[in-house]
Amino acid sequence: MAQLEIRNLTFKYPNTVRAVLDNLSFKIKKGEFVVLTGKTGTGKTTLLNIIKKELTPYGDISGDIYYNGQSFDQIDKQKTVAEIGYVFQNPESQIVTEYVWSELAFGLENLGLSADLIRRRVGETAQFFGINRWFFKKTDQLSGGEKQLVNLAAVIAMQPKLLLLDEPTARLDPLSREEFLMILKKINQELGITILLVEHQLEEVFSICDRIMVLTAGKIVIDAPPRAAGEKIPDNLEVALPSATRFYRAMGNIGHCPLSVKEGQEYLRYHFNNAVSLLPVSLPDEKAPIVYLKDLWFRYGRTEEDVLSGLRFDIKKGEIITILGGNGSGKSTLLKIIAGVYQPYRGKVHAKKNRIALLPQNPEDLFLGPTVIDDLMMTFNMIGIKDYAKTIVNWAKELGVHSFLNRNFYDLSGGERQKAGLLKVLITNADVILLDEPTKGLDEKEKKEMIAILKRLQDKGITVVIVTHDIEFAAVASNRCALLFAGEIIAAGEPHNFFSGNCFYTTAAARISRDYYNNAVTVEDLVYLATENGVK
After folding, report:
1. Which of the four, 85, 166, 228, 237, has the lowest number of CB atoms within 10 Å?
2. Is the overall model pTM greater than 0.85, yes or no?
3. C-beta neighbour count of 258 within 10 angstroms
């Protein structure tokens, strides 16, 4: 008997023609680790919200859901609350209490458990997750990765039987992401908890899950074990396969399909020569700085530690630069200082009277109107621009967002919200655009479209500064990459040189090719050198 069974599920949001979920059916067995992926807006989050009964969105719904053979309609609410856990994409949106210990206890208290049992559950959960060191810290003092671990721990303390996760690593730096996923694997293997994970970035999850399901146009079109899925997922689905798998496919499916960096290294060395080991790289033309950051010092409170400590850096006109760093390193703070939202207590930003626009990490912060188009019109009226219709239409066409301009912003998927936020920033016609995690929630196709848009903005002389944890995106999109650590920019350079010199903050392709090919940091680089060298 399946632990979760979906039969002929159809769902349509109000005032829309197309069904988000269309006669959808699948089963998940107890103890399985299943990854659900697919393009932005295909209904992945909607599906999770329907399975988490208390979050079911308003709309037209039909079909059946069974949990351990029992219809959802017949299951007591207390049972679904306790046995079906949910972790959201944004760590901030799930934390409700002031301290880590109280956050772990909050759900248990709401279940009405005894004080003794709560203490035992909280204690053993903290031990399992290794959060003893910051057990008594305030939740607002935690990094993004720590907050997401607390969210996961608080859910696991309730001892769920089924765990739903909606892109839980989208806002985590690469090291925090790996740690989170390894804990998920441990939860699945050691506790036997069934996992349904919605994810766009498949680099690490392919090698730890049992099944991959691809959702397209409201239907499951692929449902297979990871290696089989890697071989047969068609290119037109634009799924972000692991780098090793993409390399295998690009080289004509020679041999055995690799899933991980380790398997990719073995595959490369076994099948291809390396007489030509160096990828030629041309350095970008030197351009004049447009923004000067001079000795910036910043802290949030007089008694708190400095977030930025004498930071010096120049941003060049017309370049696309990405700033990388761990959660809590000050990347978002730096963008807000450049935008004038925050003021450093020492040092200065020189921007030469350029118009600067910021897309924050949470696009929700930008939207007030009932629909996306209403909000955009309000923005134009506030800044005194009357002829706004043509500008909105042009940029909406550029971003491909016509389909949801008349929808409520809060009915949009995470990726659609990102694109709506970018639209709002672009219509300001700023000279310098600051983007905080702009690929969060975007699928592979949309990331490629985002890169194309950024390149077109660059051609128009617009400078783009990006804060991101998406290293693969940074390697392809950027002219320069910079690493922020301990309040300073400690390294910066052209992407090939930058990532080739890194061990942890680097791409999967760079790890696969290390000590075999030099300067290869993307799958395209691997394909070029492997083709040049030929098959063994």
Report:
1. 228
2. yes
3. 25
